[in-house]
Design a protein that fits this description.
This protein is α/β, with parallel strands linked by helices. It has a single domain, classed as Rossmann fold (3-Layer(aba) Sandwich). The protein is built from six helices and five strands; from the N terminus they run E-H-E-H-H-E-H-E-H-E-H. The chain is globular, with a radius of gyration of 14 Å.
């Protein structure tokens, strides 16, 4: 697969966290497209009402925060995994380590549940590894 045709959806309400994630991806020399939605409703609308089928066809990863406005991340996860988009890997990228959130995420078929590092240098390496695994190593089935 051509790396510049790979899309990532970032669902994050905090602008600072979204900017850090996108900065880490740019520093990682990720050449694909990152789409950013700021709440659960916006994410579902982006995914289910996308007018450009190529965007969804090339979507290889959804980075989803748990605590987002409108529909929370767990509800967004449920909707994704109960739709035709269920094959797209969803990684919960969050600061919430509440047992209930972790259990609910895995009960709803999250592909991975990861806690965000606090320090930027750790966050940079973390994002590089997550992106590399899901977009370079993982064999997509969608």
């Amino acid at each position: 697969m051509n790396k510049d045709k790979i899309n990532i959806l970032l669902v994050e309400d905090r602008e600072e966290d979204a900017e850090l994630t996108m900065m880490a991806l740019r520093k990682d020399k990720f050449n694909g497209q990152v789409y950013w939605t700021k709440d659960g409703d916006e994410a579902i609308n982006f995914l289910l009402e996308q007018p450009d089928p190529e965007i969804i066809k090339n979507l290889r990863l959804i980075l989803l925060d748990v605590n987002i406005p409108k529909l929370n991340g767990l509800e967004v996860l449920k909707r994704i995994k109960n739709s035709h988009l269920r094959g797209i890997p969803v990684v919960m990228l969050t600061t919430s380590n509440h047992e209930k959130d972790v259990t609910t995420a895995y009960d709803n078929y999250v592909n991975s549940y990861l806690l965000k590092p606090v320090r930027f240098d750790q966050f940079q390496l973390f994002i590089e590894r997550v992106r590399y695994y899901w977009t370079d190593l993982n064999v997509a089935h969608f």
